[in-house]
Amino acid sequence: MLAGLRGLADGGWGNSVVADALPAQLPDIDAATFNRWPAKAILTAEGEESLLTRLDSDRDTNVLLWEEMPDIADFQYLDELKPGAVTLLEADIQGTTHPLLVHQRFGLGNAYILATGGTWRWQMQLPSEDQRHETFWRQMLHALASGAPRPVVVSAERLFYGDENEVTLRAEVKNREFMPVADAAVTVSVTTGVAGPAEVVEMQALPGEPGFYEATIQADETGMYRFETEASLGEDLLGAARFAVRRADGVAEHFQIQQNRPLLENIANLTGGQYFALDDLAALPEAIQFSDAGILETQILDLWNMPIVFLLLILLKAGEWLLRLFWGRL
Fold first, then answer.
1. Is the whole model's pTM more than 0.85, yes or no?
2. Per the structure, how many domains does the chain have?
3. pLDDT tens digits, one per residue of 237-291
């Protein structure tokens, strides 16, 4: 939304449904917010990182180019910014700075406020070969249009499937007016790294969700699976979309970090144990105290290091001495 004599708050936009999408609150319409004071556009720290305000690929050169920009011809005041808003340009008016170009994400798109209608001075007061004004507006239009959703969008729950052989694809189909199409013919062509013809699967419409279609693909082999979805209504092609996932085996231990309760209960049943949920932890000390399971400890000792062997040798030697004494053969 651009500023102007009857723009933003002066145009009553603060009382419209559009105000919900704007990245800043608009002031009260009782006071005029539009003025024709010249103002200097200043690049903010966020603006230095944004591609929208990138006039040159070199960061220092980009800052210098903005510092050299002529003053804008007018300015319109905004109220406080919304929590998710980012200021890309500020306006320096008589030593105080105010938001000039503000951006925020809204729903699936982007919302911008440019609080001036006087960027034409950049074109008129710069040399004719200077492209800064054209570059700024070209990048602004690209930022506005690049986030527009496509007529056909296909997705899956995730991009990587480990030890799972079913991939559920979900497609959203819209017409040229971007309205959901509930009776389209939607197919998905499945190709893998394995040589062979592509498999074509028909996607089914989801009841109660107009414009949404779903199909389950059997991914028995490991590797990359590529999906190309086409949607048509009669003879008209509504659009196409591509998507890819990767399948691998033997990796569930590394990626599936959630508790596998059926497996734990089965192990407990097979080994004569018991599965304890978090709510049952109070009974755990009692169960451990009366457990019939013993504790075995195995120690391996050298025979000649045992005290009984030493005592036996002494007894043998003492017995020999006594016999010799008895027989008189000392």
1. no
2. 2
3. 999 999 999 988 876 666 567 788 888 889 989 988 889 888 888 888 887 776 5
Q: What is the CATH number of the domain that holds 169?
A: 2.60.40.1930
Q: Mean pLDDT across the chain, nearest whole number? A: 88
Structural tokens at position 60? 């220092």
- State the Cα–Cα distance between residues 41 and 71, nearest whole angstrom: 7
Closest CA to 109 of 21, 25, 18, 174: 21
Burial class (CB in 10 A: 0-12, 13-18, 19+), 8: buried
Q: Which residues contact 161 (CB under 8 A, 6 or more apart)?
A: 167, 219, 245, 246, 247, 248
Q: Which domain holds residue 184?
A: 152-248
Cβ atoms 198, 217 nearer than 8 A: no
Q: How far apart are CA 192 and CA 170, in angstroms?
A: 19
d(CA 308, CA 313): 9
Task: Name the amino acid, one letter, at 37.
Answer: W
Strand partners, 215: 169
Are 171 and 233 in the same domain?
yes
d(CA 134, CA 145): 16
Alpha helices per DSSP H over 14-127:
45-49, 59-67, 120-125
User: Are residues 103 and 157 part of one domain?
Assistant: no
Q: How far apart are CA 244 and CA 85, in angstroms?
A: 33
